[in-house]
Amino acid sequence: MKTSLKRGFTLIELLVVIAIIGVLSSVVLASLSTARIKGRTAAAQSNMKAVQTAASMCLNEAVAINTTVTTPGTTLVCAGSATAYPVLPAGWTYGTITQTTGSVFSIPATGDGKTVTCSEASCVTI
């Protein structure tokens, strides 16, 4: 009697392994997408905190805030300042900047379905 041992995987076993790898890769890609959005939001929050600090310093010196950001990175926060509005992450833009009496201001930035608004007291993300 002749017995031959065949070693290897069956087609069903290979297809099951491929299906499992496909499911795992889709979960990882979904997680990476969420992480990218969180990273851009964190970068925007950091940039807006810097803008808030610069605006507060300008108002402490009785200089008005520049409420029109034509080109981020070159538009100064206030006259005579060396600080420019930072470039926000991809997909983020500055909203309408307001300054009312004295040191009261509001500087919003929106992107990725979120809004970061900085005022004289704090920065809030919604």
Automatic annotation (TrEMBL):
The chain crosses the membrane at residues 12-32. The keyword Metal-binding does not apply. SUPFAM superfamilies: Pili subunits. GO terms for cellular component: membrane; type II protein secretion system complex. It is a single-pass membrane protein. One of its GO terms (biological process) is protein secretion by the type II secretion system. Keywords: Membrane, Methylation, Transmembrane, Transmembrane helix. It comes from the Bacteria. It is found in: Membrane. Pfam families: N_methyl (PF07963). Its main location: membrane. InterPro entries: N_methyl_site, Pilin-like, T2SS_protein-GspH. This is Type II secretion system protein GspG C-terminal domain-containing protein.
